[in-house]
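Re: that backbone. Tokens:
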């Protein structure tokens, strides 16, 4: 079989250890195989890089094992052609029961050009995508807390959600704050309605006539504080995402021309996407910024 790479290495990556198998030409003929284990602390991964450079490795391959490949990739990508490969593509040969055999097998596949690398975006795109994913997690957490607020209100016989489309809108939040403060007069709380909600004051008064107990007020207060905290966190993420998107202004402008896709505007995209419409920030992990064809980041 034709040899593609003459100086290459396979890595078997785990949480605490990395087993490296380096294949280089043997001056006496054949191939020289060297195997060594390293830790996964940054200083230890730098030692791995030095060890590979001392053997004049040009290509390094590793499996995409959870999140554990990322620290290794971050260290090696500057000095080597680093390939991240789908574990499913190299697990088809039985009998490899040890980390050493895994590393050897990866190195041999790489040597003969039999590995298909996953797409790994550039560093700036990976950083932007990381921010967008974490922002999405906080948005989902907020939605979960809002659902908890709804459950508490139902348990207290408060049917505010039947009248107000957004329980946490300006009018709804003012009424919830009044509930938490101990107000018990539904008519007085209904007068807190703003804008078009004022036309529903009579209906709001009926919806706010419940059986609110002290423990309901306590739980509501804590949940609303949590929502406020998440809103502040998401706003800070919006600022960071906007800053990291600056180099991609042209691409963002093109995405913004897609019908149903608009620029993320903080609070509104957290609530309006029930009908399937998206935002530019939600598109950021895709379109060349997201998952490769092999299912990797």
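Recovered sequence:
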């Amino acid at each position: 079989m034709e040899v593609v790479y003459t100086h290459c290495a396979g890595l078997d990556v785990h949480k605490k250890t990395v087993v490296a198998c380096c294949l280089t030409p043997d001056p006496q003929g054949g191939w020289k195989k060297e195997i060594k284990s390293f830790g996964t602390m940054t200083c230890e991964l730098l030692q791995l890089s030095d060890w590979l450079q001392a053997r004049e490795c040009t290509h390094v391959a590793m499996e995409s094992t959870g999140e554990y490949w990322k620290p290794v990739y971050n260290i090696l990508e500057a000095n080597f052609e680093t390939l991240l490969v789908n574990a499913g593509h190299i697990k088809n040969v039985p009998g490899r029961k040890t980390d050493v055999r895994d590393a050897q097998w990866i190195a041999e596949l790489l040597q003969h050009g039999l590995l298909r690398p996953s797409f790994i975006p550039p560093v700036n795109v990976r950083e932007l995508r990381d921010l967008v994913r974490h922002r999405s997690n906080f948005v989902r957490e907020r939605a979960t807390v809002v659902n908890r607020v709804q459950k508490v209100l139902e348990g207290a016989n408060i049917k505010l959600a039947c009248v107000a489309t957004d329980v946490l809108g300006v009018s709804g939040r003012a009424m919830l704050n009044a509930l938490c403060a101990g107000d018990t007069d539904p008519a007085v709380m209904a007068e807190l309605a703003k804008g078009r909600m004022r036309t529903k004051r009579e209906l709001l008064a009926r919806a706010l006539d419940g059986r609110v107990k002290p423990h309901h007020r306590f739980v509501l207060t804590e949940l609303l504080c949590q929502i406020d905290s998440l809103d502040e966190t998401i706003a800070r993420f919006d600022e960071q995402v906007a800053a990291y998107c600056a180099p991609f202004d042209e691409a963002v402008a093109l995405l913004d021309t897609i019908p149903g896709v608009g620029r993320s505007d903080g609070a509104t995209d957290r609530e309006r996407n029930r009908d399937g419409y998206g935002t530019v920030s939600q598109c950021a992990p895709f379109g060349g910024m997201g998952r490769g064809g092999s299912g990797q980041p």
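The CA atoms of residues 106 and 192 lie 67 Å apart. Residues 265-278, 285-297 have pLDDT under 50 and may be disordered.
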